[in-house]
Structures are given as structure tokens and as C-alpha cells.
Amino acid sequence: MPRGGERLGVSAFPEPAMAEVGGKPPSSWRPFGILVGLIALPLVVIDQVSKLYVAAHMALFESIPIVPNWFDITYTQNPGAAFSMFVNFPPMVRLLMLCALSALAIVVLMVLLARADEISLTAFAMALILGGAAGNLVDRALRNGHVIDFIRVHYYDANYPIFNVADSAISIGVALIIVSSLFGKKDSV
Asked: What residue numbers bound the domain in which 143 lies?
């Protein structure tokens, strides 16, 4: 009971410290806003616009050479993960598994980015991976579990698997994390 006109305020019942519940509060939301708002979200938009453009202007499996024998735009739909992994799983199992993994990755990356005190190479890389994972998850949700792939890099008939903007962002993000862990200073995220 409050004494002599004291009012019970929020401070009367202090919240447990963030460290006690397993996390730390961000010192500033600015890095999170920049990483999500200027990297991840625009990446999702660019990914989706490029996929919509390819789907609207090309027939499935149509190929347009950009640099002959090196680089083509080839419209395909991939029901599996990267490099068509899990394509032989039953469709419902594959869809649930890939959507759950993408959603989990998005949540984990959002938490890690929210904890970032500054924009580091690792945080930038995680924003790229977040944008790529979100772009492919949107694709799966809109296209019955399929992802549109259209970037074909090859040397005559020797092909690298066809990929998209989101896949590129994920690959670049992973490569940057590896480079940062091997050659960079200790990151806080």
C-alpha cells in the first residue's frame, strides 16, 4: 500500500532485467531499422518484382541469352530448396518443412539484428540472408510451394543451378559471414 499520497507507478514493480531473461536490450533501434528497412525489405521487393516480371513476360523454361554461352535468363520453378534439394520429398512435407525452416530463420535473424549495437559486416550479411529468406518464403506462399528461378550462369552446357535474387543474397550473406569470421575483428553480433 502506498504511503502518504505515493502513487504506484511502473517503477514500483520493476521488470526483470533483460539479462535475467536471456537477452539484452538494444542500445538503439537505429541499426535494426537501417538493416531491415534499407537492406532486407528493398531486397524482398527487388526479388519479388524480378520474379513477377519474368513470370509475366516469359514462358516456363524459356531462355533468353544475355551473354551467349555464359549467362541467360531462363524461367524455371523450383519446388525444392537450394540446388533443388528435397525435391523428391512428398509435396506437403516439403512445403511445410521449407516454410517452417524459412520462418524460423527469419525470426532468429530478426532477433539477432535487433540485438546489433552497430552495423557490422556480420549484421549486414544477416540482413542480406533475412531478405533472401523472406523473398523465397513469399514466393512459396504465393506460388503453391514453388520458387521462381531465372538466373542461369553456364559455360556452354556446363551449368550452375539456376537461381534468383533471393538466393544470391543468401549466398553473398553466408560468404560475408565466413569472411568476417576468418578475417574480421570480433563482432558483437
From this structure: 28-183
For the entire predicted model, the pTM comes to: 0.81
By residue count, the chain amounts to 189
CA distance 116 to 35: 10
AA letter at 5 = G
DSSP label at 36? Answer: I
Sorted by sequence, the CB contacts under 8 Å of residue 174 that are 6+ apart come out as 125, 129
Q: Which residues are known to be catalytic?
A: 149, 167
Q: Look at residue 157 and tell me if it is in a domain.
A: yes
Cell of 122: 556480420
When divided into structural domains, the chain yields a total of 1
Check residue 188 and give its pLDDT: 55
4 grid coordinates:
502518504
**Structural domain contains residue 13:** no
Determine, yes or no, domain membership for 12: no
Say how far apart CA 64 and CA 72 lie, in whole Å. Answer: 5
Query: Which mean pLDDT values do the consecutive 10-residue runs of the chain (189 residues) have?
Result: 50 46 64 95 98 98 97 95 80 91 96 93 97 96 94 94 96 96 72
- Tell whether 11 is covered by a domain: no
